[in-house]
Write a structure and sequence with these properties.
Blueprint (H helix, E strand, L loop, with lengths): L11 H8 L3 H9 L6 E2 L5 E2 L2 H17 L3 H39 L7
Antiparallel strand pairs: 1-2
Amino acid sequence: MNFTEFEPVFTISIVARHVHLHPQTIRTYERAGLIEPHRTDSNIRLYSGADIVRLLQIKTWIDDLGLNLAGVEVMTKLSDRVTELEARVNELTMELVRQRAASARRSLPEPDRN
């Protein structure tokens, strides 16, 4: 079975064990708006691979850089913005490549058909 990076499939106990955080710490991050797990109809939290990556990043910022939750909030916003801008740069780069390729095709001389 293949899951996408964004598909919510992991319960909080699995995630907590994987990222070495107490489930209550993860809930605190959720209350602070740093992470937003999917909720099932029965209100069970489910986390995706992307959520796990985010939690590991938060843990690194707190443990290694000594940031508090307010600092982590700023870092998450900056990180999300950088990701958005990188995606936009990639889109614009691909569009430029397509335009240059089209321009190059138009400027090629027609082959002789003798």
